[in-house]
Design brief:
CATH architecture of the largest domain: 3-Layer(aba) Sandwich
CATH superfamily of the largest domain: NAD(P)-binding Rossmann-like Domain
Number of strands: 14
Structural class: alpha/beta
Shape: globular
Strand order of the largest sheet: 3-2-1-4-5-6-11
Order of helices and strands: EHEEHEHHEHEEHEEEHEEHEEHH
Number of helices: 10
Oligomer: single chain
Length: 314
């Protein structure tokens, strides 16, 4: 992806800030972000145009999207668990926000969109789960909203000649992460090095994708298709939560930490938590992409990166 003017919603966030490092030297970047979970300091030294804005502010969004070649739509409610307390937040940000992005594209004649979807669209499915699995039955409002957003992108692509690609991510981890199990474990241990609470029963088993592999997959596969398509982005293996807890304790060089579980309904960490997730990545591989890191290695690399960023003192 070279010599493009790229509009990135949520560009100051976790995936966006890593993505910019990959694109900024050969493209013109416009970041649109309300900084609700992003950090402006992550992009301060980059040659980008920053627009403070919310994707629910349609007029500002529409007026900001001028002379754009590609939209990379990352802005979303980033935390699956929030939906249990506020069951409207995913509808508003992830669905209405995506509609606003698409309608702004239509008005401004922007013909390309990359969308960050999620493995949660499948619900509890047989593993490894291919893109062709169905019917998809999300068990969280987050998953439902991502599936609805995908559908709108598909429809806009057909109706208005837009090229769109939706990427269903495994659990993405790494530098600049702001939530998720690794981040939570490190923060808990920073408060108390003697104990570590694990939500659920610790047997939740999922695929973890390092953000470097995530970005490589996004950019590589987009150039391989000509119309709307969907790809899983994940790894060949998966890792359970208790093993992640033990990895964090070991890498942080701690001794005699009491690791305990909260139990939870059916051993889940929260309502809507999927116990087992492993995406089939055979479709992406058939186009020539594969991740550099397996799930365990992605987790270990992310622990080192996040502990450094969070200021862990050995």
């Amino acid at each position: 992806m070279k010599n493009k003017r790229i509009f990135i919603t949520g560009g100051a966030g976790f995936i966006g800030s890593n993505l910019i490092d990959k694109l900024v030297n050969e493209n013109e970047i416009v970041i649109y972000d309300n900084l609700s979970s992003g950090h402006k300091e992550w992009i301060l030294d980059k040659k980008v145009e920053f627009i403070y804005g919310d994707i629910l502010d349609f007029e500002n969004l529409k007026n900001s999207m001028k002379d754009i070649d590609i939209v990379i739509h990352l802005a979303a409610n980033p935390d699956v668990r929030l939906g249990e307390k506020n069951n409207k937040i995913d509808l508003e940000i992830n669905v209405i926000g995506t509609y606003n992005v698409l309608e702004s594209m239509r008005i401004n004649d922007v013909k390309n969109i990359i969308f960050s979807s999620s493995s949660t669209v499948y619900g509890e499915a047989p593993v490894p789960t291919p893109e062709t699995y169905g019917p998809t039955k999300p068990i969280s409002f987050y998953g439902a909203s991502k599936l609805a957003a995908e559908s709108y992108i598909s429809a806009f692509s057909e109706m208005y000649g837009i090229k769109g690609v939706s990427y269903r991510f495994a659990n993405v981890v790494g530098r600049h992460g702001t939530h998720g199990v690794i981040y939570d474990f490190i923060k808990k241990l920073m408060n108390d090095r003697t104990k570590l609470e694990v939500l659920g029963d610790g047997t939740q088993t999922k695929s973890y994708l390092h953000v470097e592999d995530c970005i490589d997959g996004i950019l590589y596969l987009f150039d391989k298709v000509n119309k709307y398509d969907v790809f899983n982005l994940g790894t060949d293996g998966y890792t359970n939560v208790m093993d992640i807890a033990k990895m964090v304790v070991k890498i942080l060089n701690l001794k005699e930490v009491n690791i305990y579980t909260t139990g939870g309904k059916e051993g889940r960490g929260w309502a809507g938590d999927i116990k087992v997730m492993l995406l089939s990545i055979e479709k992406a591989k058939s186009y020539g992409w594969k991740p550099k890191y397996n799930s365990d290695d992605a987790v270990k690399k992310a622990i080192l990166e996040l502990s450094g960023e969070l200021g862990w003192k050995y």
